[in-house]
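== Sequence entry ==
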Amino acid sequence: MSNYTGAVPETKRKPDWRTQAACRADSVKPDEMFPDNNEHGIAHAKAICASCPVAMACLQHALRTGDNEHGIRGGLKPAERRAVAKIVRDRHRSEQAVTVAVQQVLYPATARRSLREVWEEHTYPMPDGHLGWNGSLTFSWRGHSYAPKRTSFALDRGHDPKGIVRRTCPVVECVHPLHLEDNAERKQRVAAKQQKAA
């Protein structure tokens, strides 16, 4: 005996990202996202995009459909979208590729600098051989977020740290690579100390 009822089965469809777009809010007029060459209007439209939870989906859709003539999409002007499209080409589905391309278009000087150059720009010497960090708790480089201590460790050791990076000195602001250790180095230090005590 069949259990078929003739009803169309329900399908789980992914909600359309457009329904979550910040520019669809009642407080935003449609023409606000099409500011022409008005710098104030462009800044306002980009601010709306900056608070949008689906800005990346919007930008990826614009790149995929070739929408690069009018309005602000995903926080970018048409010329900026065209420049991003040239960089990503057929990789527009990759959020990482699009993020890196956006960084290169919006911040070309930063995009050309190495991670070491960006890190050195934010560090400064402190008394007694310590190294301070001047900036926020994380910084962005080529579309990725970096923490100062982990970056300092990786640049010095030539590999990513294992686990949490902690200071070995009492100076809270210090990011000197010689005053940092990861989980692997901590285990080695403790093991060496125990072996010496035995």
Summary: The chain has a mean pLDDT of 85.
